Structure formats: structure tokens, C-alpha cells
Amino acid sequence: MTRFTDPFSAIFKDCRTIAVVGLSIKPERASHGVARYMQQHGYRIIPVNPTYAGTRILNEHCYATLTLAAASLTTKNIKIDIVDCFRKSEAISPIADEAIAIGARCLWMQLGVINKEAAAKASASGLQVVMDRCIKIEHANAI
Hints:
The protein contains six helices and seven strands, in the order αβαβββαβαβαβα.
């Protein structure tokens, strides 16, 4: 049985569906490795990348936007819990807006991704916000 003991325990325990914004098809890219790791640990990965929309990444359908992903998944009674961002810091604000609009529970900005305005907006809307942290590293440290 997995026992989470870190500050992110509630996120990892309660949030099981992760939209990975900026997920690459290239296995050598960090986004791919992180998403694959989380998938191997029982999380549902939802690829979001307009470049690869309509294809499959890690055996999951890739969507152009969070909004399109959430709309499609709603018909299957699936809700996006975590929005994991592999994008430049300056690109996070519209992603935060989408995360709020779809009712995500957490906005996660990967290592090196820092956008305080987007974080404040998401937090004010009730989302948990994690900034400049790797979800794979934090998960590995938690189990």
C-alpha cells in the first residue's frame, strides 16, 4: 500500500487524472518521462499539445487545449484534477484561466516554471498551486 507522507499527500491521493500541457511525443523529453512515470504509478494522463492534437501519446488521445480535453472527458465522466504545465513561465496565464474554467483542483508548474500572477489567480479561484517543482520528483519522495 502506498503511504504518502509529504505536503503533497492530498494531491497525490485524491487527484488521479493529470492533464500534461506541453507533453511531447519524444521519449527523451522531460514531459514524456514525467508523464510516463505518473502513468506507471496509476495516474491517468491526458496529453494537451496543439502540435500533436488528434494523435496518441502514451496510448492516450492528445487534445489541442485543456478546454477541449475537459469537454471530451466529461462525456466519459472523467474530470481533470491536476493541470501539469511544461510550458514557459510567460505562457502559464491562459493555462491557469483554462484550469480554473474546467474546474481543475490543482495547477502544477514544473521546475523552472514560475508565474506568480497566474498562481495568485488560480489560488484565489480555489485551486491548489505548486510552482517550480517536478511532480515526478515530489511523487517519488512521497511514496
